[in-house]
Structure formats: C-alpha cells, structure tokens
Design a protein that fits this description.
The protein is mainly beta. The protein has one domain. The strands form two sheets. It has a six-stranded mixed β-sheet with strand order 5-6-2-1-8-9. The protein has a four-stranded antiparallel β-sheet with strand order 4-3-7-10, with no helix packed on it. It starts with 7 loop residues before the first strand and ends with a strand.
C-alpha cells in the first residue's frame, strides 16, 4: 500500500444541459478510500485483488453519496453509481444524476451548490478540488477543505 503526504481528491461535476444529466467523476487515492470505508463499515475492500470485497462498489458509493451533495437550481441531484476504474495508485468512481424539471432541449443552469466532505473524516488537511462544467464548455475550479465544504456557484 502506497502512503502519500498529500491528501487530495478531484471531483468533476459536468452538467449536460442538452440531455438533462449530471455526470460526476471522483478521483481518490486507492488506499484513502479503502481506509475510510474500513473505518466506517469494517470492510476490508482489497480493491483490485482476488480477495476484493464483493460489495466494494456498493460500500464506496454509499460513503461517497453521503459526503457529496449537489443541488442545481435549488433542487437536489440524486446520484447513481455508474462504474469504477483503477490504476496502481488511484481510483476513479463515476456517478450520474438527472436534472429536476429538465425538458428536451437546452436546460438553463441558474445556480449550483456543491457540498463536498469526502475524506475530511480521515484527514484534517484533506483538499477536495472541484471542477464544475456548466454544459456550455465552460469550467470553473474550486478548492474545498475542512474550512470550506460548500461552494455556491451563481451562473
């Protein structure tokens, strides 16, 4: 297991205004997500090994969806687990949600609120980078941490 001195995650929230979908990808160090899930669920995930916990995806999704909240135009986005991709040191977890009241054609984003407390229960110096895509090709970046867990985005 690789130890690392920097505690950071990357969360990309991409609003697809044409389809009414919100696509979320979260990149974490593999050992961090394994440790935090083990702390809460006493599950030894052993991601990427032959002994991997059969409910690994469910346990990871449960942890993450209880620490990442997305609200678009004052309506919550319910996230569904899509998949998990791994390399030697990190894991990408993908989710998808639907925009409330989306109709065919262009959806207009007026505001977004993102609350991200991922891994803050494990590391006090955890930083969570948020990249928010507005659906028109424009992205904005935000740094979140224990002193700043909520980002309000006015568009």
């Amino acid at each position: 297991m690789m130890l690392h001195p920097v505690h950071v995650s990357v969360t990309t929230v991409d609003v697809k205004t044409d389809s009414g979908k919100v696509c979320v990808q979260i990149k974490l160090f593999t050992n961090d997500i394994q440790q935090v899930v083990n702390n809460f669920d006493s599950a030894n995930l052993q991601l990427g090994t032959k002994a991997e916990q059969p409910k690994a995806d469910e346990l990871i999704a449960d942890y993450l969806t209880n620490r990442l909240f997305i609200e678009i135009n004052k309506k919550p986005v319910i996230l569904r687990f899509v998949d998990r991709r791994m390399n030697e040191e990190s894991v990408w977890i993908s989710f998808e949600g639907d925009l409330a009241d989306s109709k065919h054609g262009a959806f207009v984003i007026k505001s977004a609120i993102i609350e991200n407390t991922i891994l803050l229960d494990l590391y006090e110096d955890q930083s969570n980078l948020l990249i928010f895509g507005q659906g028109n090709g424009t992205e904005k970046g935000y740094m979140m941490n224990i002193g700043n867990v909520k980002q309000t985005i006015e568009l």
